[in-house]
Every structure is written in structure tokens, then in C-alpha cells.
Design goal:
By secondary structure, the chain is an alpha/beta fold. It is about 25% helix and about 20% strand. It is built from 20 helices and 31 strands. The strands form 10 sheets. Strands 14-15-13-16-19-20-21 form a 7-stranded parallel sheet, with helices on both faces. Strand 22 and strand 23 form a beta hairpin.
């Protein structure tokens, strides 16, 4: 084995008043340190600083349409602390969200991470309910309800209630009456940011010098009750789980396999295209795919080989020279030779203990990103360099079964991969919050990285349309209108018959295309053959195709996305489910140097169409012909409800594809002659995908 085992504790994770129930063994740490706490008046700056540095952040979604600065959001959550604390919280929030400064305006609907803080509010009005007492109102809203606090409560309200004593005050409470509490504080859940962070008890012991304040604070601490929550509640990214087809085998036919072509046909085509790319670009490097997931189970078994993993040169040299245990490239991760673990910040990328399917999720995706069992084996013989390689980011949490590392760190993972020149990033993750820091980081790398994202699956019943169910990120970054439509590919799943898999999320605005997602052959943590279903394997298959295009010299992520979209198999039945109305076609995608005509019998004709612009004549609407410049794809013979035919032209402007549909003209002769091959008549053409011109034009 490549990595040595370490003991890892699995602890509870609790956020914003809700604790998440664990399956399996819960450690003593979880039982003693998942606690709720309220702020109290008099908590000194040092205690606030220590808490902010040690506790998990919270996530706040901006509802103000005019936006707020990051500093404003901190103030709304943390009140008006000491200047030293305020500056520390602002600096921490800037780092958590990877923003430029605390004055950055956060857009409406975006979420930001705010450091742990305790906000104490003075003179808060509350309404008396049935059964309330002065003590119960204080306990519910402040946590501190001793004699001195009750007396302050009485003094604030004696004129309003006419009470002369605390006893009179208690008897005078009337249902519906508004009273003023001396102080109030929202509940915050404290669960150390890392298992080795100081416990809350240790923080109170070291950082609260005033015994009275310490006693008050301790009185507000209670164990956090373990209650199950929706896994997409927004507090963490979660793996897009695989789908068990046994529950609905008829709804998702498994006939058909990926890849749906002969591996030798694929290999011969790729080698021929690669040779032509080398003649234009010179020496080319494999396309490296970053797998941000639950890790990789094994290295150097019969399937996963070290040759499939792109090493970190400095860390590999350090390991080989006996310098294991050091951060040789000073990137903050120790021995990250083939990837890293975002919990331990080292190179041990193996999955943490989890439910079996989730534990193996990353390994399954890694196998598919290599092309799956049939394709990856082509490069097994010694001396053959695979066209795609992997860089592994274990983004699995050590604090919650079935979830990932805290959301704000996904931006760090993106930066980690960008620093190592990883051009394709596979994200089979889902979150119900639109994180400002992640959005800005993806945008920052828009000219370097392509993000391939799973559209997501329904746990029960049919998948959702994420147009009307917007809380699915990063899936909503892709498509034709997403915030990062140029460098995010959102992938839905189709079944073995090419139809929408019923569990798959869809959208003709935010989903780009479909890829195989039913009973796809892959490998698990032990290298054993298994089948997997869902939008996750569909996305991993698209990542493989993206890596192939990078290895052929197409390094601009915007052009990689466009190439994958222009080469889809168009299907009018998918029009309302994905922007491209199409399914992934790897053979057409990698035919970079040829125009490809696909005919209705499924065969291909490759060559060079002398004048693509001349094909605009098949559009029978002259006003629309004026829009047809820089044509990249043509789809004829689209049947309409009235019985007529339409033709669709895909054009590109500013690295962005557009589709123009018009009535199809009935013209004699071949559709698109290629040299000596006159080609088929238009009636036999399924679609025409044009070559990708040299130098990425």
C-alpha cells in the first residue's frame, strides 16, 4: 500500500442549532463536545477571539436585494464586539470566503461563511406566552436566569407592569403583553473546527478570567440534541449519491453499455487525432482530471495504477529521498504526492470509514474519469502513456457520516488544483447554498479550469427541474444561463435507451447535456467490478471526455465545453431537459480535426467540408440566415407538430454557443460534400459537427 493507516475519530457535526445524527459508532468527542451555547454580557475580547478561531463558522444567505458588505453581514450576526475582535472576525471572514476585503458587497441570494461569534443584544422585546415566568423567558432568550438577572428584568419592566417586587412581577405576567429583556442571544453550536482544536471547556478555562462571567457562560451550555436533518439543508456539500435501480428497474432500462462503441475503434481514432494534434501543437501532456470526492481506495492494484495518477514532482522527489513527512513544495499539504486529504492536510487520500456506497463513491468516479474498465485497460501495457491522469482530493468529512468537508473549503480545493495546473475538475457534490467565495473562485479560474458537475438525483420519485427548484449548487452554475456558463458543464443522466433517467435532475437553462447514468461499469475501493447509476457517473464520463480533449491540445475550458456540446447526439425529446437537447458522443467529440456527418443509420463520415457557411442556404428564412456566422453544428430534419421540418444551426460568438432554428429548405443534391465523397442527401443526415480549427479557433 502507498499510504500508512492512521486512527481517525468520527465526531458529530452540528450547525445553527441543529445536530446531525450519526450512523455507526459515535466517539466520546462527539458526545462531550457537540454543545449549544449562548453569549453573555461581559465576555471579554480574548474569549471571543479564541472561540472565533476554534469553532465552526456559520453560513448566512443575503436576502437584501441591494446586497450588504461582508462587514455588514458580520455585524448583523455578531453585534458590535470589541474593535480587536471586530477586525479579527473581518479578517477571518475574508479568508473563509476568499474575497478581496471586508467591504466586498455580497450579492442577493449568495451565502457567506461567518466566523463563530456570540452576539449579545440589549433590551430585547418579547411577548409573554401561556405558562411563561420571568425565569423561563430569560432561559429561552438568554440562557442566564439567576436572581440578579431576574431582578434586572423586573427593574426594566416595573413601571410598565406596576409591580413593586420581583414576586409581584412574576404574578403580573399577562399573555400577549410585551416586556423588555435586559439581554438576549441566539443559540450557537460549538463543534471544534478540527478534532485537535481546544474544547469549549478548555477555552472557558483559559480565556475567561472573570469567574462570574465564566459561571454565567457555563450556565448557557447544554448538550446539542441529536436530530436528523435534510442532507441538503445547506450546511455542507454532500456527495450526489448513487441510485439503486433495483427499486425501479422498469423505469430505468439497463440495456446498453458505456462505452457504446468498440474500444479498438475508440483507440484507433484517438491515436490518429492525437498524431494530428502533435503535428500542430508539438509535445502534448495528458489531460489531468481533479476528482474532488471521497478519495481513492487503492493504488497499484489490477485496475488503479500509479501511471494513472499525476504526481506532485517536489513531493515525490522528497518521498524518494527519504523526506517523507515534510511539506516539500510549501503548499500547506504534507506529502501530497498524488493528491491530498482536506481534513488531515496530507497525502493520505483513502476514504474515511463511511457507508459502503458513499465510501467508494470517489473511487467509482475516478475509474470512470479514466474511461471505465474497458477503456482504461487500453493503456495498461508498459510504455503506453494514458491520455488522461488523475489528481485526487479527498473532500470527505471526518466529523459527519456521509458528508464532505465544510463548504467554504471547496474554494480552497479549487485553488489547490489550479496551482498544480489541473484543467478539468469533477464535482459530484451538491449544496443548497450559493456560496459567494466558491462562485468567485470558479469565476477567477474561468480561463483555466473546466468544472464538470453532476445535476443531482432524486432520492425518491422523479428528479427535479432545477429551474423551479433553485437550491442546487454548483449544478446551477452551468447550462446556458448559469453564473459560470462558460466553464461549468452540468450533466444529467440518461438510461440505456438514451432517454432521461427518471431520477435525474434536469433543466433546459442550467443543465448542459446528458451522459450515460444507468448501471455503468466501474470499480470500487477494492478494485472489484461494480455497476453505478446516477448523475455522478454521468458527470465522471464527461470529465473523461474533457480530459481527452485537453490531451489533444484543446486547453481553453470554454472551448472544451463548446466542443463537447457541439458533438452531442441531438434528440428533440430532450429539448426541455438540457440546453443542448443532446447526449454525450465521445467519438464525435475527439474528432477534432475532421468534420463529421452522422447519418440516420448511426454511421460516420469524416473529412473536410469546403465551405461551412454555404450550408446556411438550407435555412428557408432569409432574415435568420443573417445570424448564421461561425457555424459549429447543424441539425437537420427536426420534425414539427405540423409535419414540416426545421433545421438548427449552432454558432459561436465570444466563446459562447447559440442555437438558431428555422424552416428547412428542400434542396436537391448532397448535403455536405467532402472532397471526393459527395456525402448523403440531407434526408439521411442526423447531424453535422464541424472540426475544431487549429490553435483553438
Amino acid at each position: 500500500m502507498l499510504w500508512a493507516y492512521r486512527s481517525r475519530s468520527i465526531v458529530s457535526a452540528t450547525f445553527m442549532g441543529t445536530a446531525i445524527a450519526l450512523t455507526g459508532q459515535i466517539s466520546a468527542f462527539a458526545q462531550t463536545n457537540a454543545v449549544s451555547i449562548r453569549g453573555v454580557a461581559g465576555l471579554d475580547a480574548q474569549a471571543q477571539l479564541t472561540l472565533a478561531a476554534s469553532g465552526d463558522p456559520q453560513f448566512v444567505t443575503i436576502e437584501n436585494e441591494n446586497g450588504q458588505t461582508l462587514r455588514d453581514v458580520i455585524a448583523s450576526q455578531c453585534g458590535s464586539p470589541d474593535k480587536e475582535v471586530e477586525d479579527f472576525l473581518a479578517a477571518e471572514a475574508v479568508k473563509l470566503n476568499r474575497l478581496d476585503n471586508a467591504e466586498t458587497v455580497v450579492r442577493q441570494g449568495m451565502a457567506v461563511a461567518i466566523p463563530f461569534c456570540l452576539n449579545v443584544r440589549r433590551n430585547v422585546d418579547v411577548t409573554v406566552k401561556a405558562g411563561d415566568t420571568p425565569e423561563s423567558l430569560l432561559k429561552e432568550n438568554y440562557g442566564v436566569f439567576g436572581p440578579k438577572t431576574v431582578d434586572k428584568f423586573f427593574q426594566l419592566n416595573r413601571i410598565r407592569t406596576g409591580a413593586r417586587t420581583v414576586s409581584d412581577f412574576a404574578r403580573s405576567l399577562q399573555i400577549g403583553k410585551v416586556l423588555t429583556l435586559p439581554a438576549a442571544s441566539e443559540i450557537r453550536i460549538f463543534t471544534q473546527e478540527a478534532p485537535d482544536a481546544p474544547s469549549l471547556e478548555a477555552i472557558l478555562e483559559q480565556a475567561v478570567p472573570d469567574p462570574a462571567v465564566k459561571a454565567m457562560l457555563e450556565s448557557t451550555i447544554v448538550p446539542a440534541a441529536a436530530t436528523p436533518v435534510d442532507p441538503l439543508a445547506g450546511y455542507r456539500f454532500n456527495i450526489v449519491d448513487s441510485v439503486a435501480l433495483e427499486s425501479a428497474p422498469e423505469a430505468c432500462p439497463v440495456a446498453g453499455r458505456f462505452p457504446n462503441f468498440d474500444p479498438k475503434v475508440f483507440s484507433d481514432l484517438y491515436e490518429a487525432q492525437h498524431a494530428r494534434s502533435v503535428s500542430v501543437y508539438g509535445i502534448l501532456q495528458p489531460g489531468v482530471i481533479g476528482i474532488v470526492d471521497t478519495g481513492l481506495g487503492r493504488v497499484d492494484d489490477l485496475f488503479f495504477r500509479r501511471k494513472y495518477l499525476r504526481p506532485n514532482a517536489l513531493e515525490l522527489a522528497g518521498e524518494q529521498s527519504g523526506l517523507a513527512g515534510s511539506d516539500d513544495d510549501e503548499n500547506g499539504f504534507v506529502d501530497d504526492v498524488y493528491g491530498t486529504n482536506f481534513n488531515a492536510r496530507d497525502g493520505d487520500v483513502r476514504p474515511l470509514p463511511d457507508l459502503p456506497d458513499r465510501q467508494a463513491h470517489g473511487t467509482k468516479m475516478a475509474a470512470l474519469a479514466l474511461g471505465g474498465p474497458q477503456i482504461a485497460g487500453i493503456w495498461l501495457p508498459d510504455g503506453k502513456t494514458p491520455p488522461v491522469m488523475l489528481k485526487i482530493v479527498n473532500f470527505q468529512s471526518s466529523t459527519e457520516i456521509g458528508a464532505t468537508v465544510l463548504p467554504y473549503r471547496l474554494a480552497d480545493a479549487v485553488d489547490y488544483l489550479a496551482a498544480q495546473d489541473i484543467r478539468v475538475v469533477n464535482l459530484s457534490l451538491s449544496n443548497s447554498q450559493n456560496l459567494e467565495g466558491l462562485s468567485q473562485t470558479i469565476g477567477k479560474h474561468g480561463e483555466m479550469q473546466l468544472f464538470v458537475v453532476a445535476a443531482g438525483n432524486a432520492r425518491q420519485g422523479p428528479g427535479r427541474n432545477i429551474d423551479s427548484k433553485p437550491l442546487v449548487f454548483p449544478a446551477r452554475y452551468g447550462g446556458r444561463v448559469g453564473d459560470h456558463k462558460r466553464n461549468v458543464l452540468t450533466v444529467a443522466a440518461h438510461d440505456g435507451q438514451g432517454k432521461r433517467a427518471p431520477f435525474s435532475n434536469v433543466s433546459d437553462q442550467f443543465v448542459d447535456l446528458f451522459a450515460p447514468g444507468c448501471s455503468i461499469a466501474t470499480r470500487d475501493d477494492n478494485g472489484s467490478p461494480v455497476n453505478d447509476s446516477g448523475t455522478s457517473p454521468a458527470a465522471a464520463t464527461v470529465s473523461f471526455t474533457s480530459g481527452l480533449l485537453v490531451s489533444l491540445g484543446l486547453t481553453d475550458p470554454r472551448l472544451v465545453k463548446n466542443r463537447i456540446l457541439t458533438s452531442v447526439d441531438f434528440d428533440e425529446d430532450l429539448r426541455t431537459y438540457a440546453w443542448s437537447s443532446g447526449r454525450l458522443n465521445i467519438l464525435k467529440a475527439i474528432s477534432l480535426w475532421d468534420d463529421v456527418v452522422q447519418t440516420s443509420d448511426g454511421s460516420y463520415r469524416r473529412g473536410k467540408v469546403s465551405d461551412r457557411q454555404a450550408l446556411a442556404k438550407f435555412c428557408a428564412e432569409p432574415d435568420k440566415q443573417l445570424e448564421l456566422t461561425d457555424i459549429r453544428k447543424i441539425v437537420p430534419n427536426i420534425k414539427t407538430q405540423t409535419g414540416g421540418l426545421q433545421i438548427e444551426y449552432w454558432t459561436m460568438s465570444d466563446r459562447l454557443l447559440s442555437r438558431v432554428r428555422c424552416s428547412q429548405a428542400s434542396l436537391p443534391g448532397p448535403f455536405a460534400p467532402m472532397g471526393d465523397d459527395q456525402g448523403p442527401p440531407i434526408s439521411e443526415v442526423k447531424d453535422l459537427t464541424f472540426a475544431q480549427l487549429p490553435a483553438g479557433q
